[in-house]
Amino acid sequence: MGVVGLSEPAWAHGITGGLESIPDFVLSGITHMLLGWDHLLFIVGVVLLAGELRRAASLISLFALGHSTTLIIATLSRWQVNAALVDGVIAASVVFVGVVGLIGRPQRWGWFAAAVTGFGLVHGLGLATRLQALGLHEETVLSRVIAFNIGVEVGQLIAIGVLMLIVEVAHRFPVPNNGALPGWLRTRRAANVALVAGGVLAGTLVAVGAVEQEPATATAAGSGACQVRDRTETFQGIGGHPKKDFYEPTETTPQDDFGHVVGDGYVAVLYQPTLATAQLDELRVFVTGPDGNKVVGGPAAAGQAETFKAIHAYQTLTCTQFDLAALREFKAGWANDPRSRSTG
């Protein structure tokens, strides 16, 4: 694929945090598909190009097989993908199907079916990265992924059903022929032009979004004692909202609750219980004060080498020395990131 292992997880059509039950994940999959307008445009293009229900069903089944395969494998294997690449490929798929539609239906469908499957594989990689940002527990991850995938398929079926209804209505009330082209052919050509335009628009939005997000990532590093990297930490359990924002060194951090709110767009800070009193006071004031909106903090578990970590859905700030300024930058960068609002 060439995108596995690159930084910056995919965030198109955010999957909401705070998911607890199997039905929650099914509903989230449905919502994800129905709100993903560029994915829907691709499906529209495939159905229009197929020209008949059986062929359309076969092509969409290949797309579903592709994204279901990589969604499950990539999530279980903890593969991460690059946001700009995945969103760019999705946009390119819309342009691709629109251009093919303008050229005319393929004489041989094998190559087109292979392309549809390939786009499905990339789509699944993006979905897997987004699900991993929720911090799923390893004991429940498979059931949650399958439930989410079922939701995606249901959403896809709903979209196809609505599209076929529109096509049926269009056939019953054809566009009048003004002598240039048959009415339905002229309408289909206009639809393919719109698909190309929609794909170009989606690609432009991806490029603009990547440029806008770059400064926030670059400025979050703080001093030399702190580094920002892609998040690899997961939290145990599903949990709910923690009972309070800050846990003292003598208390136990509710890891499952912290994982829950990270999925809701929070920043979780895990600090060494041996912090100096003055540093602990500074951290407590930050977390519980107005600057610490959507921040929780608690003592780190045994084995953490860093003085503190700050974790959000996509990145981790690690500091070998206490650096509140770096933490403030990290939190501010996440608050200004559009993904922090689509996560929660």
Automatic annotation (TrEMBL):
Keyword Transmembrane helix: yes
Keywords noted in UniProt: Membrane, Transmembrane, Transmembrane helix
Keyword Transmembrane (UniProt): yes
Transmembrane segments: 25-49, 56-77, 83-104, 111-133, 145-169, 190-211
UniProt-listed Pfam families: HupE_UreJ_2 (PF13795)
Protein name in UniProt: HupE/UreJ protein
Organism expressing this protein natively: Asanoa iriomotensis
